[in-house]
Amino acid sequence: MRLEPIASPGPLRLVLMPLAALGLTVLVAAVLVLAAGAAPLPVFGLIVQGAAGSQFAILETLTRATPLILTGLSVAVAFRAKLWNIGAEAQLYLGAVMAVVLGTGATGLPAPLLIPLIGLAAVLAGGLALLGPAVLKTRFGVDEVVTTLLLNFIVLLFVSLLLEGPLKDPMALGWPRSEKIEAAAALPRLITGKRLHWGFILALVSAGLVWFVLARTVFGYEMRAVGHNAQAARFAGIRVERVLLKTALLSGGLAGLAGYSEVAGLKGNLTLDLSPGYGYTGIVVAMLALLNPLGVVVSAIFVAGIFVGADAMSRSAGVPSYIAQVIVATALLSMVSALLFTRYRIRWR
Amino acid sequence: MDILDIFLTASFWVAAVRIASPLIFATMGELICERAGVLNLGIEGIMTVGAFTGWLTVWLGGGLWLGVGVALLAGMAMGLLHGVLTVPLGLSQHVTGIGITLLATSLTYYIYRIALPQVTSPPKIEAFQPWPVPGLSEIPLIGPALFAQTPLTYLAFACAALTAFVLWRTSLGVAIRAAGENPAAVEAQGLSVTWLRIGAVMAGSGLMAVGGAFLTMSAFNSFFFEMINGRGWVCIALVVFGGWKPGKALLGALLFAAFDAFQVRLQQVAGGVVPYQVFLMLPYALSILALVVMSRRAAAPRALMVPYRAGER
After folding, report:
1. What's the pTM value of the predicted model, to 2 decimals?
2. Which of the residues A170, A203, B2, B93 has an alpha carbon 20 to 30 A from that of B213?
3. B222: CATH
4. Which ipTM value was assigned to this complex?
C-alpha cells in the first residue's frame, strides 16, 4: 500500500472526506450511547438541544467557547511555526494568577486603566511561560513537547502553593481559593444577568488580529516559512531563533489572555479547577480549524457546543458526559486522516 | 530523623524500586517506539487504558496474570491505531499522539462510568503480593528493595533486559533500529519499514499499558481518575535522558523514582518549613534539568518523527 499525491483534488473529494470524518465520529458516539443502554438518536437530539436549543444554551456555548478560542489561537500560532506548544494549560493559569494578583491588589486604579493593565500583565506572564521552553529549544536543542508538558504540572503546583499561601482567601474556610477581584478589574457581562462576558469579544478581536498577523505581516510570513522548512528559511536569511521566540511570546500570551478572561470575565477568582483542560482542548480546536485563526472561532464554538450539550444531555439521559471528550478526540483523529485523503489517494500494490 | 538517615532505611529503597517499576515498563515501551522512528505521545492515555483494563479484568473475576495480558492487548490495540495513523498515513506524530491520549483517557473514563455508575470510592481488588526470594531478600537495604517485590517489578527489570537484548542482539532489533535511523536502507534490504514501525509501536504501547496496569494491580489496588498523573510524560523525558539506550533509561527511571521517594520522606523532615508543593514540583523540575543537561550529547534516532514514504526523499 502506498499514498499517491493527487495533483488537483476535485470538489467532491474536498466535501466528502470531512463528511466521512463526521460520519465516523457520529458512528463512534452512537456505539458508545448504545453501550450505555440508551438510544443514540434521542441522545444526539438532547446534545444539540443542550448546545443550541435555547437562548440560555447558546449563551452558555459561547461562554464556554471563549477560553477555547484563545487557547486554540495559542496552539494554532505555535504549530504554524512548528513550535509544539503543549503547555497552554500552564500559560492560561499564569495569566489567571496575574489577573488575581493585580485584580485583588487594591491598586485604586479606575477600570479603564486597570483592565488593560491586567490584560497586558496576563499576556506577558503567559508569553514568558512559553519563552522559557522556546529558549531551551533554540539554545540547547531541548524538545519543547516534553518541557511544555512538564511545565503544566509545575505551574499547577505553583498555583496550588499560591492558593494555600499568599493568594489564599481567608474567608474560604480552608478551600484553596483566591479572593474575588475588585469590581474595577472585572470584565463586564455582555448581557446583564447572563454569563456571557466581554472576554468573548476579546477572543473574537484576538482571532481577527492573529489572522491579520499571519496573513498580512512579514512576521506571519516568517513564521510560516520557519514552520514549513526551518533550514530553507535560515538559508533565505530569516533569523529562525528570533522568529521562534517571538512566536512563543505571542502563543503563550494568547493562552495567558484565556486565563485572564476566565477570571476577570466569568469566575471572579482563581481556583485549581479554573480550567478543565482548556489548554489541551485548544490543540483539538486548532487542528480542527487547520490552524486557521478564523476557523478557530468556528471550531471552538463547535467543541464548546459538544461539551455544553453533553453536560445537559448527561443530566437528563444518564449517559456519562465523558462522551463529549470521546467525540472531540475521535473528531480530531478522523478529521486529520480525512484531510490527508483530500491530498492523497491509497494505491494498493 | 536526619536527612541522610533516609538513605539507611529499607522502606526508602523498597519504595524507590516500586515507584520505578511502572516507569521502567513505559519508558522501555516509548524507547522501542522512538527507536523505530515513531514518537508516541499517546503514552499517558495508553497507560490509563492499561491501568483500567487490568483492574477491570480482575474486578470482573479474572486472574491477575489474565489482567496483565488484557492490559497488554489493550495497549497494543491503541498502538495499532497510533501506528496506522502515523506510519502508512504519515500524519503528524505530535497531533495523533495527543489525540490518542485524549481518546484513550476519555474512553476509559466513559466505560468506567458505565461499568460503575454512581460509585464514589472505587472498589479494591486483591492485587499482586510480594514474592520474596529466599536468602537474597535477607540482605540489608538492597535485599528487600530488589528481592522482596511483587512479580510485576521483577518483570519490569526483565523487560528492560529483554528490550536491550532484542534491540542490540537480534536481527529483528537491528532492523527496528535501522527503521528509526535510515528507513531507505531497511527498504533496500527487502524489509517493510511500515510493518517494522507498526510492530514496534504496538509492542511498545503494550508495555506502556502494562506499566499502567502496575499502578492498579501492584500499587494502589484500585482504579481512579487522573491516576497516571503525568507519569507517561516523565517517561518521554526519561527516554531522552537515557540517550535512547535501555540501560541508561533504566538507571534514569531508578534515579527519578529514588528522588520521588526521597522527596516524600524529606517532607516529613522539612515539612512545615517548605510548602509541600515545592517537593512535588521537584521531580518535574529535575526532569527538565536532566533534559537540558542530556540533550546536548544525546543522539536521537535520525528518522524520529520523519514519516517514511517509499520512493520519496
Report:
1. 0.93
2. B93
3. 1.10.3470.10
4. 0.92
